[in-house]
Predict the structure.
Amino acid sequence: MATPDRRSILIDAYENAAVIVSGISPDQLRNSTPCHGYDAAGLIDHVVEAGHRAAALGRGQAPPSGDASPHVELTEAPDRLRSAAQEAAAAWADDTRLVTTATMPWGEQYTGAALIDMYLLELAVHAWDLARATGQLDRLASTLAAPALSGAHAFIKEDFRDMVGPGAPFGAEVPPPPGANDWERFVAFTGRDPRARSRRAASSGRPGGLCLPASVRLCRAPASTGFAQRSSRGLVQRYRRPCWRLSA
């Protein structure tokens, strides 16, 4: 079987996220997002950090576990994402990176192709989260959702769904609504209801969420929501509330 090569789609996902972030106004930073436990400001921080992590992995640098997402000013975030995209394009340019295996901090191994799918999924789904939270669904790149869905099919295994509880780390696939577009089919596969009513803006500040790319879970929120997760290889880790589901 040929190794999937979604490197160019990953770079497109950076630009898509940058476009959405550039359309967010300061008064929308407290808006709740479909990523449970995150407002727009916290999720922007996470997306920028994820973009830099993806580039570092292309250079062969495994990200340390437990890293917090540094705060990024809204005015700086689009340029930070585009800079990370340039780093990622250079880091993943060598074709051998697709088949090189990396051992992650939690002990599991992934090929470069799988890591690209991991971060394509993360950048794309969180761009949708931010677009949904700030009324920008019409600005999402129409050509990105279908290949992002292909990457999600490759990365999300059935036993990842509801592994540690309902919706954690991924919820059950939501049936796409009648007439669903590519973006709605994509987010429905991740366990989000693409047409659920948006939640009201958060009444308190950013959760200060910590973010960790994991074998089956890519985000975590405040420590007060912590729970122990056993990975598919039996490795027990301390994670926090997953952000891969929509709370309607």
Observations:
- The domain at 7-159+194-208 is CATH 1.20.120 (Four Helix Bundle (Hemerythrin (Met), subunit A)).
- The chain has a mean pLDDT of 80.
- The first strand starts at residue 101 and ends at 103.
- The helical segments are 7-22, 40-58, 77-91, 112-133, 145-155, 182-189.
